[in-house]
Amino acid sequence: MEDFQADICPVCGHAGLDYEIRDVQEDVLVYPWTCPQCKSKGDEEYTISFNTHVIHSRGRENNENET
């Protein structure tokens, strides 16, 4: 298996790929890229897995005061 790295062109080794808008497919996040040096194109893929919830604001926690 090849030793691919994020933001490094797997064809010529150039650091600093140009990325397009990302796409979510099932549990994979896909970033299409183009290498500005050799003009190769491809996708970086990242596996998405649940980690935790981050609560930014809470709704009503208790309804005691409602009639």
**What's the assembly state of these chains?**
single chain
Number of domains: 1
Helix content: under 10%
Q: Quick one: how many beta strands?
A: 4
Give the end-to-end Cα distance, rounded to a whole number of Å: 65 Å
Set out the fold topology.
Blueprint: E1 18-19, E2 23-25, E3 28-34, E4 41-47
Antiparallel strand pairs: 1-3, 2-3, 3-4
Descriptive labels:
single chain, 67 residues, mainly beta, 0% helix, four-stranded antiparallel sheet
Describe this structure in words.
With 67 residues, the chain is mainly β. The protein has one domain (1-49). Helices cover 0% and strands 28% of the residues. The chain is built from no helices and four strands. It has strands spanning 18-19, 23-25, 28-34, 41-47. Strands 1, 2, 3 and 4 form a four-stranded antiparallel sheet that branches. A hairpin with a 6-residue loop joins β3 and β4 (41-47). The protein is elongated.
